[in-house]
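hey can u check if this looks right to u? its 377 residues, i copy pasted from the old doc so theres a chance i mangled smth
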Amino acid sequence: MFTALDEYLVHQTPETVDRVFTSDRNFYDRYYFGAYSPDGDAYLMVAMGLYPNVGVIDAFATAVIGGETQHIVRASRELRGDRMDTKVGPIGVQIVEPLRRVRVFCEPNDQGLTFDLTFDARTAPFEEPHFFRRSGPRVVMDYTRMTQQGRWSGTFTAGGTTWQVRPEQWRGVRDHSWGIRPVGGGEPPSAPPPDGGGLAGFYWVWSPAQFADACLMYTVSEEPDGRRWHSAAELLYPPESGRAPEQLVVAEHDFRLKPGTRLWGGGSMTVLRDGKPVRFTMTPKTTLYMAGGGYSYLGGWRHGQYHGPLVVETEQWDLRDPAVVAKAGVHTQTICDYTVEGADDLGPGAGVFEFLLLGAYLPYGLKSFTDVAPAAS
């Protein structure tokens, strides 16, 4: 079908824009947004994904306040072909100025999580190296992501408290990724791939942080034996500084897990800047469980599932309850204070530290999906 987007000079295939280059059901196109308060006590995450070959668009808004309660609003509807309609139930995304300004909002709902916020970019987008992975003969990851940091303005209400969000105080990050990676809904069983699956373990770190005059982007993915298969790091500067992005080299990391879990508990990462080591140490403040934003691996609502013509749900998690935390899984984002050694021009900063560890990871002594870090003695 023709849609408004077909009027623009954006076609990548001989088909109309509502049809993508592959029939793989796992093709997706997704936004992510994160906004955090100056004290790191409040964190809001928003995600919206579009799945042309499943016929679904979904959206998630989730916020953690004070580290104790996570509020969730989630919505899913039939796509109906129009990829320009980026509103799902109460949640919407509006591109105000491409690559510079984006509005996200959530209208009144049963959870009381509402917001009308505008993201203003602080730097140009960072294009992460292309992701590509196979499981046996099948491509399971083939996608691109751009990440951009900025400031937020507007209003935000959660847990009965309303914040007047001011750009000189509220920092944040957004990304936009598209291509092929596993989405929800499940598939028929098939024979085991000859290489054992290629994804016997998945180790993922993603860390955008902001400092007084610069922004850091850091990401690393590793094999179960600790070998890196994807990594990148860069310092980006506001356009008015006149400074070009500064390439860094990922050197090493020293992270710790919370005892008896697979949850990230702090640590540091080291990069090389002009051949000299720079160490970033993260002090955790507020942790959000990504399953509340659709990043679920053990059941429940997940990106790309079909729930019906339009379904909206709300939920609230008590993060003081160990049973709730266990159900929420191991994929987290943590707002952190960042300190720096080896780069006096950066000073202290703050940012998002995302961590996911599934399956085996031998550097931590984890040999199966059920292994956890040793309990505290």
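The longest helix spans residues 322-328.
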